[in-house]
Specification:
The mean pLDDT is 93. It is built from two helices and 15 strands. The N and C termini lie far apart (57 Å). The protein is mainly beta. Strand 1 and strand 2 form a beta hairpin. The structure holds fe (ii) ion. The site of fe (ii) ion has 5 residues, from loops.
Length: 193
Amino acid sequence: VPGKPAMGSSGTPILIDWQAGTLAGNAVEQSSKTLGELPGLFRDESARQRLDPETLVYRVQLWQPVHAGTEGGLFWGTTIVEPGKVGAEYFMTHGHFHHIRNRGEYYATVQGEGALILMPEGGQARQEIMSLGTLHYIPGNTAHRVANTGKTQLVFLASWPSDAGYDYDLIRHSGFGASLIEVNGKPVLVPNP
Ligand SMILES: [Fe+2]
């Protein structure tokens, strides 16, 4: 639109729909993960292979107003996790430590029901229940992932330092130490073998 700056370009805002959680603006980046793109993530790998690999597990909208790696900047994201299970394990995000380990993060739930699974480095995994309005502080040195334990989409907002980065490898190699499984209709965090 002539005369109207692109939303989200330097020094201009983007738009957020606070009920849906979704972001709009030229600067918003999008990515998604399907079951086929998450091999080895769920404890029952053969159950994953029996499901349609095109099944959407989650998608992310991301606003990076500064370049990744910039010290002192902040990023913003919206993640939408679909309802579903692989075997008895709920659909979830991959999860990560931050590359700069001591960087923290906020998550805030705007739709659905779920669990934030936290694993401090060298410690025990635990969960915080997510529902409309819950605001979660993720300390540094703590891996984090989100599982959708409900029957509708789980949507949460996030903000984190632009130099935090991601370290997926430790999760990929040693997992989270525990999996969120449905037992008698309820989410239970069970240790991995
Ligand atoms: Fe993070």
